[in-house]
Structure formats: C-alpha cells, structure tokens
Amino acid sequence: MDFRHLGRSGLKISEIIYGNWLTHASQIEDERATACVRAALEEGVTTFDTADVYANTAAEEVLGKALAGERREGLEIFTKVYFPTGPKGHNDTGLSRKHIMESIDGSLQRLGTDYVDLYQAHRYDVATPLEETMQAFADVVRSGKALYIGVSEWNADQLRAGHQLARELGIQLISNQPQYSMLWRVIEERVVPTSRELGISQIVWSPVAQGILSGKYAPGAEPPEGSRARDEKGGADMIKRFLEDRTLEAVQGLRPIAEESGLTMAQLAVAWVLANDNVAGAIIGASRPEQVRENVRAAGVRLEPEVLARVDEVLGDLPETDPGKTRSPAHRLA
Known about the structure:
The chain has about 325 residues and is an alpha/beta fold. It has a domain at about 10-210 and about 275-300: NADP-dependent oxidoreductase domain (TIM Barrel, Alpha-Beta Barrel). About 35% of the residues lie in helices and about 15% in strands. The strands form two sheets. Strands 3-4-5-6-7-8-9-10 form an eight-stranded parallel beta barrel, surrounded by six helices. The chain has a two-stranded antiparallel sheet with strand order 1-2. Helix 4 (about 130-140) links the parallel strand 6 (about 115-120) and strand 7 (about 145-150). Helix 3 runs parallel beside helix 4. The longest helix has 15 residues, at about 95-110. The mean pLDDT is about 90.
C-alpha cells in the first residue's frame, strides 16, 4: 500500500480508502461487511470512510464493530455530517451548530472511538451561515473529537470561503470529497486548481463509476444479477445515468488498455483517478472481499502519459465536465 499526505497537512492516508456507502447495513449482511473490512486491513488499507446518513446511522455501527480491536493509532477513520438522520426532525439535518455538535457525539459512540481523524461537511448548507458551521467545526477540533476538517461536493467558491474561515479560526480544512472518475470529471476545471492553491486534497468517491468502468455491464444486455444496477435500495438510481449503450460500448473499448497495462478494468479506473496529483485517495466500496482485494491492486500503479491519452481518445466526449454540476442541494434537505 502506498500513502499520500492529505492536503497541506502532516496526515498520511492510504491511497485506497475503504468506504461503506450503500453496502453496510443495506446491500450486504453484517458478517460479509466485516469480511470486507478484514480484507481491506489485510491488504494494507488504513483509511476508512463512512457517514452518519449511511443506512440512517447503522453503517457507522457496522464499521465500528468491524474495526474493534484494531490499534486505533494505526487507522484513519473519517465520517460526515449534513443529511437527515434519526427521526429526521427539523434540526436533524444541515450544518447548524446544534446538528454538528449532536452528530459528532452520535458518530463517535457508533464508531466506538474517542475521535475521528477527519470530520466532513457532507454537503454545503445554504440555510446556515458558513461562519456558524466553521465555528462549530473549530470547537469539535478543539474538543479533541476530530483532528481535521473536510468537506464533500463543495464548489470552488465554497472551498475558498470555508478555507479562509478555517484559517482565521486556527483549524485546518484539508480535504474535499467529490465524485470523480473517467466518466465524471466536473471537478477538473475549477475545484482541482482552487484546491491545489489552497492546499486541499480530493478524496474521491465512485472512481469506478458505480461499477460501470469494471466492464461488467454489456451494451444491449440486462444488468447482471446482484449488481448495483439491480439494487432498489439506492444503487440503481445512482448508476442509471451511465447505462446508455453508447457509454457501455465506449467503456468496452478500455479493455485492451487495461489488459496491456496488466490491470483489470476496475484497477485501471482506480489508477486513473490516482494519477491526478490532487487526489490523495480513492474510496472503494465492496460487497465481497474479493472485490476489495482486486481494487487494492491499483495502489502504487503509475499510468504512463500515453495510457492516459488513450483513455481520453476512447471515451471522447462522453465524460461529464461541466463544473456547474459540482453542487450541493439548493435548499436544506428535511
């Protein structure tokens, strides 16, 4: 496993991050979830990402139990706050001081730890003054309940404003967690240059585009049984935008590139996002331990410029690049 600094901080994280969105306490039973976490640990993964909203807090519990007994100092545990949780009352959402201060305590209890290494704003909250949010995060850090602060899916202007307030408050905002893959490149025009300037790293989710870039979805064919495209608990909604035959046909064109590089298609997809020097880590999810072991093999792979150029040639104008699609909800979700 290779490791990279997160932002302009001294914290190092594993290039491959294990995430449990859509899997733990949802798609797979707890025993298999624990087996996936164990596989990640055995392969050298030290960084684990979750959120209070995943399976309405249950995913944090599953991860906490799976990591129980591990040396805490050898792990980097990340979680997030913003989306509605619990009974979803009027204050059970957003980035108000009340919701943040209550949510961090709930997350720590479920995860079975005294602190998280990174506490992230899961989206930008248009209904709460940014000053209130950042002050609450600063107090969480000063209380020792989180070591660093990050965000998710913030645009360039939001990152700049948050980073400035964090500096004034004496804390470090070191990361952004956006969707990023060969097919979804909306952060490249504005978010990545701004982040480089500010010393913020990307921790990217869905590097395999919900499994599309693994090559298992054939054009004109029904999705395989047990695949995310058949998951009615949320996976199918997320993946449907990539299921057009034109996209699936182009993705099959990546197969020779992967084979010539000695990689599976999923490994190529993960290595591709890691080729961006502003990406500190790629979050992988899994429903089976063997998926973890396959994707971890992308760590340390360095793709040559000609390989990256061939990927661009094969995909042509298919990738989404509109920076306007880096956005948070236009109103607080209740």
